[in-house]
Amino acid sequence: MIDSLEHDGDRQSEACGVFGIYAPGEAVARITFFGLYALQHRGQESAGIAVSDGRHAYVHKEMGLVSQVFNEDNLRPLQGDIAIGHVRYSTADSSRRVSAQPFLLESALGPIALAHNGNLVNTEDLRQELFTRGVGLTSYCDTEVMIQMLAGARGDTWLDRIRHMMSKALGAYSLTILTRDALFAARDPWGFRPLAMGKLNGGWVVASESCALHTVGAHDIQEIPAGKIVMIDGDGARIVDGVPPARPHLCVFEYIYFARPDSLIGGQLVHEVRQALGRELAREHAVDADLVISIPDSATAAAIGYAHEAGIPYGEGLIKNRYIGRTFIQPDDRLRKAGIALKFNPLPEILKGKRVVVVDDSIVRGNTSRPIAELLRRAGAAEIHMRISSPPIKHPCFMGVDMATYDELIAHHLSVQEIERRLGVDSLGYLSLEGLDRACKDLEGRCCSSCFTGDYLFEQKAGGFIAREEQRRFCVG
Fold first, then answer.
1. By C-alpha distance, which of 260, 180, 216, 211 is closest to 32?
2. Exposed (0-12), middle (13-18) or buried (19+): which is 140, by Cβ within 10 Å?
3. Which residues on adjacent β-strands are paired with residue 387?
4. Contacts for 292 with CB less than 8 Å, ≥ 6 apart
5. Helix or strand holding residue 85 (H, E)
6. Cβ burial 77-86 (10 Å sphere, 16+ → b, else e)
7. What residues contact residue 415 under an 8 Å CB cut-off, 6+ apart?
8. pLDDT averaged over the chain?
9. Is 133 exposed, middle or buried (0-12, 13-18, 19+ CB in 10 A)?
10. Is 410 helix (H, G, I), strand (E, B) or coil?
């Protein structure tokens, strides 16, 4: 997956990372800062932290990276024993400050703040319910809908209200929720998005990925089961029922691209799964070549797996400028025309005269893959064989992944051979669904692959969205 300076080309983005901590006596806002820093790969558009001191809640959030949003001056006032944090990439709403998270409201039960990773498919139905009750909204963000549902729900406790909200919300959500004196976490019944928890200095932390928990020094890390609620307060942590779990549908792109390689998801180390993807890809699409390289950084593990399986040396052919996309200063016309050269520098001494296998994790629109191939040819590569460690993406995602539309998806309109010609490469090979299943160890039993197959879990009926497989009590229908 090639990142870009702007929202173009083959950039595919995950919608957010969440963090939460209950640790009396600790600098919870500062710990949350470092937790968010470890989750920065999940969203780069905005960042925010909310804290509670047992009486009041406070929030600071802005557009930008974690390191741009927070400094010593604005972290210092965020004092308390409980905090939640969020990094965001917009999908359901535009990129603007009003949609930055966490959201914070006052309610009859006191303050509540919410951070959300995922996307609801029945947001419009829920918005209309709120409007009918006379509740106004400031954005189209489904997270605002969820916090308004919590603030206005019937129920004497936050646990009751969270269960009620989960019974109405249909889609993907991993949540951290802050109240005056407790931290909650909740995961949708399908487990679309990861969520984990661990112990820290007599307290507890929750995060989208285990890598963030390791970063802040947590131990005894475990994944939060689908459909469950974690409640952490002065009595400790307990996992309670939210809604009945459904058939697992963890997004397979957590393994392919989204998650950091040092995270454990579904009991598997992401780095090892990506190497397995590369090995399967080499078995399915072997080619005589001199060198295997990756599109850094997300495809590196798959490229190493391909090289090992194929018996071809792995090397660096492209050097990524990791900071060019970390600024809000836009390039001028001359630099914009340089395009991919702003992001990657080839190594002609390594590439010249070589038959090169180029491993990437996916192709969405195809707009940046051709410039990459041209860049490698100008650097002297004799042949370019592109290998993709996922199947062709033919369908959009509605679960919080910015996967483009049918019109934009190159594999929806073109065959593999036609894409090969469009990209200007000597050969192109995608991993098969069967290879993906083998690498991910029973994909069909645990993961959502709708973007490859078009077999969606949810469909729309006259009364709203329902789950095709299981029209359970908690599904809106």
1. 216
2. middle
3. 359, 429
4. 303, 306, 307, 310, 312, 313, 314, 315, 356, 357, 359
5. strand 82-88
6. ebebbbbbbb
7. none
8. 89
9. exposed
10. helix
| Domains of the chain in sequence order | 13-249 (3.60.20.10), 268-453 (3.40.50.2020)
* Strand, helix or coil for residue 88: strand
Helical H segments across 51-173, by residue range: 66-69, 72-75, 123-132, 142-152, 158-168
* pLDDT for 327: 56
Distance CA 278, CA 288 (A): 16
Phi, psi of 183 (to 5 degrees): -115, 130
Structure tokens belonging to residue 252: 């397979």
The pLDDT of residue 322: 75
Q: What backbone torsions phi and psi does residue 420 show, to the nearest 5 degrees?
A: -55, -45
* Rounded-to-integer distance, Cα 172 and Cα 168, Å: 12
Q: What is the distance between the alpha carbons of residues 443 and 280, in angstroms, rounded to a whole number?
A: 14
What's the pLDDT tens digit per position in 420-431?
999 999 999 999
Report how far apart, in Å, the C-alpha atoms of 166 and of each of 243, 244, 357 are.
7, 10, 46
215, amino acid identity: T
447 catalytically annotated: no
Six token digits for residue 419: 């894409």
Q: Tokens standing for 287?
A: 């080619």
Would you say residue 460 has pLDDT above 80? no
Q: Which residue has the higher pLDDT, 398 or 111?
A: 111
245-267 pLDDT, tens digit each: 999 999 999 999 999 999 999 99
CA atoms within 13 A on the CB side of 47: 25
Q: What is the pLDDT of residues 75-101, one digit of tens each?
A: 999 999 999 999 997 654 455 677 899
Q: Which two tokens stand for residue 285?
A: 């699409």
| Token pair in block for residue 334 | 């001359």
Q: What is the pTM of this model?
A: 0.90
User: pLDDT tens for residues 16-32?
Assistant: 999 999 999 999 999 99
Active-site pick, 16, 251, 440, 448: 16
Q: What DSSP element (H or E) covers 33?
A: helix 28-38
The amino acid at 315: G
Cα gap 257→41, rounded to integer Å: 10
pLDDT tens-digit readout, 310-365? 999 999 999 988 776 555 555 566 665 567 777 899 999 999 999 999 999 999 98
